[in-house]
Design goal:
The protein is mostly helical. It has a single domain, classed as Up-down Bundle (Growth Hormone, Chain: A). About 75% of the residues lie in helices and about 0% in strands. The protein is built from 15 helices and no strands. The protein is globular and about 50 Å long.
């Protein structure tokens, strides 16, 4: 049974956690209001992913060692408490730059734990023959959160400013923390059997290719996550959340309508089309002059995301033993965070040097590099393993 009570409950918890995180897509406004530049935005937004990348081997090992649900609880506590720490920063950005970096590091660790643990938990409980569909539909909760979070955040900022914004982010994450406490564990290691390390898994050709594709995908996500809001503001577009609403709506519809497609035809046939949609969606932002281009970009990139994430994640864990799924998802999500980090910092400096149009052009062209990587996927199989140890 795919849509079990556990699946639904964890989806709602994920919605809340991602909504809390999604509010911080508007954090570049906070940085700008306190005197930050485009490169400051890139560094401060990117440091969030840096912590996730650095600690990913430890995080993924923890998820396999102590369990998915216990790990998620640790991440939820961080996600609930750390938004409150931003309340203590006052004045010019230069007055609290280093403490802010430190807070962003720990905040990023919390999201990395929740993100990796949640998708590993779901992979444990869904039927193996519906793996892509299940991951895709579960991901809908996160996609909705990426729309709900910025929309709520924008309303709060306009009416109550940033202190209320941080309080709301903490409250939403706390609700998710309280709900997930009652969920059972999906897997916890009971014997000290030999384990593959994070880095030994990363060295395998299949997971190396998937990690590179995830890195490219993460690079594209950094463009939309860190630079859409300030670019739209520079172009005097009032309703910045329009992009995220269109993005999330397109991604959700893609999952609902095409959720079973990849399970039928194989992930490798879907991924190239998803890369093209994502890349073109970023490149057309070069033409941004109003709401229409903003909406079209959101729709195209959202469709690409709707297919790309579950296809890559399913390809990574399909047929793999349950006792190393945390590390496999760690490699995959670590690639995403690595790409987000590289994109945030690199694109921030490109934005300072050449402006937002060039920034989004380069981000889109980088996505097309994924098509070249796909030529090196011989031996990366879509086959489903029927060994019940892997269920």
């Amino acid at each position: 049974m795919l849509y079990s009570p556990l699946f639904i409950a964890m989806s709602f918890v994920n919605l809340l956690t991602v909504s809390s995180f999604g509010m911080f897509f508007l954090f570049p406004f906070y940085i700008s209001n306190h005197g930050g530049t485009k490169s400051d935005i890139g560094i401060i937004m990117g440091i969030f992913a840096l912590s996730a990348v650095i600690f990913r081997p430890w995080i993924s090992d923890m998820i396999d060692r102590i369990g998915r649900k216990r790990s998620y609880t640790v991440g939820s506590i961080i996600m609930s408490s750390f938004p409150l720490s931003y309340l203590f920063f006052q004045g010019d950005l230069s007055n609290f730059y280093l403490p802010l970096i430190l807070i962003r590091i720990f905040h990023g660790i919390g999201l990395a734990i929740c993100f990796t643990a949640a998708f590993t938990y779901i992979a444990d409980i869904i039927p193996k023959e519906r793996l892509n569909e299940g991951i895709g539909i579960f991901g809908v909760s996160g996609i909705i959160g990426l729309a709900v979070g910025p929309a709520i955040g924008e309303l709060i900022i306009h009416k109550y400013e940033f202190p209320a914004f941080f309080l709301a982010s903490a409250a939403i994450a706390t609700l998710g923390l309280l709900i997930q406490i009652f969920l059972p564990e999906s897997y916890a290691q009971t014997t000290k059997t030999a384990q593959q390390s994070f880095f030994s898994i990363l060295k395998e050709k299949k997971h190396t290719v998937i990690a590179i594709l995830a890195l490219i995908f993460g690079f594209s996500l950094s463009a939309s996550g860190s630079f859409i809001a300030p670019f739209a503001k520079e172009m005097n577009i009032a309703f910045v959340s329009l992009y995220y609403i269109c993005y999330s709506t397109a991604a959700v519809l893609t999952r609902l309508i095409g959720g079973k497609l990849a399970d039928r035809v194989g992930e490798k046939k879907i991924i190239p089309h998803a890369l093209i949609l994502t890349g073109v969606g970023l490149i057309i932002l070069v033409l941004l002059n109003g709401n229409l281009i903003l909406a079209i970009s959101g729709i195209m990139s959202g469709c690409g995301h709707g297919f790309l994430f579950p296809c890559l994640n399913s390809l990574a864990i399909r047929g793999e033993p349950i006792n190393i799924r945390g590390k496999i998802n760690g490699v995959f999500t670590g690639g995403l965070d690595g790409g987000t980090l590289a994109g945030s910092i690199t694109l921030g400096y490109i934005g300072d040097w050449a402006g937002f149009q060039i920034l989004f052009l380069i981000a889109g062209l980088v996505v097309f590099l994924g098509l070249l990587v796909l030529k090196n996927t011989k031996g990366v199989s879509n086959a489903t393993c029927h060994d019940t140890r892997f269920v």
